[in-house]
């Protein structure tokens, strides 16, 4: 790749470039230590070397910036103690960001991170002028990196800062040994940046308010396939490196990488799946053709898909959430492949994020609903267009049921139930990820759609909203002002001030949604669930069980069965004779169904201390390596009378779990051990060290759902980012 950069001259030795149009400063983000308000980030370039044997990433980052005022004293970036900075330097940059690509040289092992090379500055000049820097504590989830800048730096004068570093034990970077993959053949690594983890991947403005294009050059061990969230990619075989380019501005958290034994299969004209070879046939058969249907439906609703390709990569069970909407390359946990309806909903949700979240992004994590609530609304419009209103209403009822469950557990005055959550300094914004963000946000967006009286007119508004704000970050007022401008008749009616339904109250009141959608179009699917649940809670039991046994739930949709089991879970502990009859009627049948169904039945078993089915719990935990199918069961086991059983199963299975998940379960066990359990000295040592070993900002705490005894488990959230 040819590179053209300006000749090195003393700062200020030439006329200042023409001043570009003013840009609004990024919204203040208390989760970022950076000085993003003082600079415009034009582009970032990454040179990365993956070193799986050392579990280390070696990087060289070239930031292309302009200062927004003269002579800024320092550049402050978000960083992390996992980053070891080797050097920081400065060089002038040409006026156009596209004119300053660089290549990277990868030194021999042990000789440090990659080195940048610029065609206009051969040899040592490519290193630039050294800059002083320091790393200071910021929060439990990151540090601040302060870089001293040359005093002569002019406003709007493009410049580059080059940072060479290595990253080990980074919360954003998950290294898997071969035995933690399905194929057991090659090491695997993936990154997970949401919400504030990518500051341990590379120093950055780690705030959704700042977007830029990026490029990357990645070197990996021979035979390891590398993918990134990029619009263009190429593998240069003679160099053994991958080149990636993201042509549209994205926030730092959406820069994502995965590498391992991955093979592709086309599933549509602009989509393919990537998976380990043993999973590829299943992934292909379940998604072939349908992803294009979903993309086309979304385009009819919200305008052209702007990212080029839409590919999906299936990750091993260690992936800490269900799915992540990285542009051009959705990450999704492979465990969900066996649950068809959940797979459909999760992928469509990530498709919707291509418009809401990726193209138009919440400017701060305090308003995450702007991405998640709108994406959930768009997801349900897509499913209605593709699968009909009844299915959409069933899925919505299932999720709203979970929302009200979470509300009962947290209380209606919980501050996290607000749409505009106040993020206190030091609190990890990932802990704000809850069902209110999704479902209360969805209810507000649905309410707005009802105000205009026609879903198609509201689709037109959202299309205009995306067109206006694409590739930028917004706050709630931007959405609401655009809504009232698009529908002036509603503005004249002062719909934003209707008593009890004020927009401000929607945003800042705690508690449940102020209004919920009419789900009567799904009654053909939800009524049988309600009827069966009522039978099992009726008297006398013998008559109820006989009537219930005549209902064949094997013909039900997954969401129907899951909703029925959730209702039983809400009523647990149940009378023992009811649990016994439930087991006799359903246990064998449910044991043959997908994991989303099985985990719910097994939670009923555990919460009711039903020992005859405990062997099914053991078998399930012996076969699962995913946090979404292990954490809820371990939490329930340690809450009740089965702590010693949980301990026994854990010590038989821990070798197959990712270290982050293993530490989380150890913490659950250590806090759950009571007088009835006498751990051995070995157990006490290992469990006692678990809490100390658990990095508070590690992905193990990504969803804020693992607090033992929280009783809000992944089955309640089952969240896709």
Automatic annotation (TrEMBL):
The active site is at residues 350, 438. The gene is Rnpepl1. This is Aminopeptidase RNPEPL1 isoform X2. Belongs to the peptidase M1 family. Residues 672-707 are annotated as: Disordered. Its cofactor is Zn(2+). GO terms for biological process: proteolysis. It comes from Cricetulus griseus. Binds 1 zinc ion per subunit.
């Amino acid at each position: 790749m040819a590179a053209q950069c300006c000749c090195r001259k003393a700062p200020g030795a030439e006329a200042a470039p023409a001043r570009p149009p003013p840009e609004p400063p990024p919204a203040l983000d208390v989760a970022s230590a950076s000085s993003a308000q003082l600079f415009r980030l034009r582009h970032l370039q990454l040179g990365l070397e993956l070193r799986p044997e050392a579990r280390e990433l070696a990087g060289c980052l070239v930031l292309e910036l302009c200062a927004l005022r003269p002579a800024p004293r320092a550049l402050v970036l978000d960083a992390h103690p996992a980053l070891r900075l080797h050097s920081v330097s400065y060089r002038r940059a040409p006026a156009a960001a596209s004119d300053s690509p660089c290549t990277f040289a990868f030194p021999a092992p042990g000789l440090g991170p990659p080195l940048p090379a610029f065609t206009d500055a051969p040899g040592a000049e490519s290193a630039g002028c050294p800059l002083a820097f320091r790393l200071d504590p910021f929060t439990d989830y990151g540090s601040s990196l302060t870089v001293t800048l040359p005093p002569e730096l002019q406003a709007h004068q493009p410049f580059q800062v080059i940072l060479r570093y290595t990253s080990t034990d980074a919360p954003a970077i998950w290294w898997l040994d071969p035995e933690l993959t399905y194929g057991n053949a090659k090491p695997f690594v993936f990154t997970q940046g949401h919400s504030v983890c990518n500051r341990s991947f590379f120093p950055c403005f780690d705030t959704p308010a700042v977007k830029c294009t990026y490029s990357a050059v990645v070197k990996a061990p021979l035979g390891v396939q590398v993918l990134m969230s990029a619009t263009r990619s190429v593998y240069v075989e003679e160099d053994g490196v991958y080149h990636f380019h993201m042509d549209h501005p994205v926030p730092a958290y959406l820069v994502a990488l995965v590498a391992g034994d991955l093979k592709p299969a086309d599933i549509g004209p602009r989509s393919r799946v990537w998976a380990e070879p043993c999973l590829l046939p299943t992934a292909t058969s379940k998604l072939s053709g349908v992803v294009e249907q979903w993309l086309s439906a979304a385009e009819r609703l919200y305008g052209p898909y702007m990212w080029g390709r839409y590919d999906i990569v299936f990750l091993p069970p260690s992936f800490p959430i269900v799915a992540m909407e990285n542009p051009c390359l959705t990450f999704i946990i492979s465990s969900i492949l066996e649950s068809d309806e959940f797979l459909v909903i999760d992928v469509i949700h990530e498709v919707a994020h291509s418009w809401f979240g990726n193209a138009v992004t919440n400017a701060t994590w305090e308003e995450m609903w702007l991405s998640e609530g709108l994406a959930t609304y768009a997801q349900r419009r897509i499913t209605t267009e593709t699968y009909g209103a009844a299915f959409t209403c069933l899925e919505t009822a299932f999720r709203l049921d979970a929302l009200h469950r979470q509300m009962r557990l947290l209380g209606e005055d919980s501050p996290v139930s607000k749409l505009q959550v106040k993020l206190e300094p030091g609190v990890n914004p990932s802990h704000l990820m809850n069902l209110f963000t999704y479902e209360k946000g969805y209810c507000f967006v649905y309410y707005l759609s009802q105000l205009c009286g026609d879903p198609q007119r509201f689709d037109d508004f959202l299309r205009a909203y995306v067109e206006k704000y694409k590739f930028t970050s917004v706050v709630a007022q931007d959405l609401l002002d655009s809504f009232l401008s698009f529908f002036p008749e509603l503005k004249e009616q002062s719909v934003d001030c209707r008593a009890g339904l004020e927009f401000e109250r929607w945003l800042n009141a705690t508690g449940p949604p102020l209004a919920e959608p009419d789900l009567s179009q799904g009654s053909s699917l939800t009524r049988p669930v309600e009827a069966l649940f009522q039978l099992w809670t009726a008297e006398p039991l013998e008559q109820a069980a006989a009537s219930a046994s005549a209902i064949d739930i094997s013909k039900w949709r997954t969401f129907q069965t899951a909703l029925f089991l959730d209702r039983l879970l809400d009523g647990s502990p149940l009378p023992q004779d009811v649990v016994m009859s439930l087991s006799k009627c359903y246990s064998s049948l449910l044991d043959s169904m997908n994991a989303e169904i099985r985990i719910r039945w097994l939670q009923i078993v555990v919460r009711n201390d039903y020992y005859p089915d405990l062997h099914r719990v053991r078998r399930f935990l012996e076969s699962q390596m995913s946090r979404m199918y292990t954490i809820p069961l371990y939490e329930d086991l340690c809450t009740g009378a089965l702590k010693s059983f949980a301990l026994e199963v854990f010590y038989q299975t821990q070798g197959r779990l990712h270290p982050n998940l293993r530490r989380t379960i150890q913490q659950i066990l250590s806090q759950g051990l009571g007088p009835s359990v006498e751990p051995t000295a070995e157990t006490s040592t290992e469990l006692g060290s678990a809490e100390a070993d658990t990095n508070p900002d590690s992905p193990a705490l990504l969803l804020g759902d693992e607090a033992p005894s929280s009783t809000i488990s992944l089955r309640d959230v089952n969240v896709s980012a």
